[in-house]
Write a structure and sequence with these properties.
Order of helices and strands: HHHHHHHHHHHH
Structural class: mainly alpha
Helix content: over 70%
Number of helices: 12
Shape: globular
Distance between the termini: 26 Å
Number of strands: 0
Largest sheet: none
Strand content: under 5%
Length: about 280
């Protein structure tokens, strides 16, 4: 219960920053749209070329592996670029400024070569894990899943490091792991807490809207049932955008605290709650 309380304090503190700058939601929105565009760019030609059918049959052409790397690289670059813009804008707010969307993009553009390098590292890790996963049994897949989770946790602060420190992509990953160990230890309060909170909200929303759809369908109100279904999807999308934005704000605050000992404007209550702990 103590960990959940601290997690909720972090969510509220991040939400306070987000309420001050609602334009921060633009970054995860654009990231999602561009990610879908990248997926369509790769998948549509493959579908019309019959390659996806071959994959269903268990036959993968050799040239698909380098194409897969390019796909991973493109996806990660889009995600990291918009995340860098979000983190950069959030850092301005935490420093007491009043950021704009243009400020976020300016900071991300200034570091795009480093972001591309980090995307290449992440794409390599993702492709290697995928290759291993396809060649091992159930236990091996479980282990690969744990490795993927460990990589995600270790690299959580890589983007804030790239935006705010003058280092390359390799050093950013090393620095991220160092800051994570020193600041969080084994208690991943922010990331795990937000995932828990939003997971509960997602489930509650689905149950609520699902019940309304069933009631409308049982009353033979087809139009109303469709409307509730559409509303459910829109709500899930909005919740996803808010979660992504909050996690970006938290990452910026955590990195700022690791650097200066102060998480920034809006996080005073969370610090008092003991969510951040720096080990000597």
């Amino acid at each position: 219960m103590g960990r959940f309380a601290r997690s909720w304090a972090l969510v509220k503190a991040s939400a306070a920053v987000l309420r001050s700058d609602r334009e921060l939601l633009v970054f995860p929105l654009l990231s999602a749209l561009c990610t879908l565009l990248v997926v369509a760019t790769f998948c549509v030609p493959l579908a019309f070329g019959g390659v996806l059918t071959q994959l269903d049959d268990g036959v993968a052409p050799v040239w698909l592996w380098p194409l897969g790397f390019v796909f991973y690289l493109s996806q990660y670059f889009v995600i990291f670029f918009f995340n860098a813009a979000l983190v950069g804008a959030a850092r301005i707010r935490l420093d007491g400024g009043d950021p704009t969307v243009a400020d976020g993009f300016r900071l991300a553009m200034a570091r795009w070569p480093q972001i591309l390098g980090y995307a290449a590292i992440a794409a390599t890790v993702g492709l290697v894990l995928r290759a291993i996963q396809e060649r091992v049994g159930l236990l091996g897949r479980w282990i690969v899943g744990l490795l993927g989770m460990a990589w995600t946790v270790a690299s959580f602060l890589a983007v804030p490091v790239l935006v705010n420190e003058d280092v390359g992509p390799v050093d950013a990953v090393k620095r991220s792991a160092e800051l994570l160990k020193r600041t969080w230890g084994e208690n991943l309060i922010g990331n795990g807490g937000m995932s828990l909170v939003f997971g509960l909200v997602f489930v509650a929303w689905l149950l609520c809207m699902g019940g309304l759809v069933v009631l409308a369908a049982s009353a033979h109100a087809a139009v109303l049932a469709v409307a509730f279904g559409v509303l459910a999807v829109i709500g899930l999308l909005l919740l996803g955008l808010v979660q992504a934005a909050l996690q970006g704000v938290y990452a910026a605050a955590l990195h700022r605290y690791a650097q200066t000992g102060d998480a920034g404007v809006g996080f005073e209550g969370a610090l008092v709650a003991g969510a951040f702990r720096v080990k000597a």
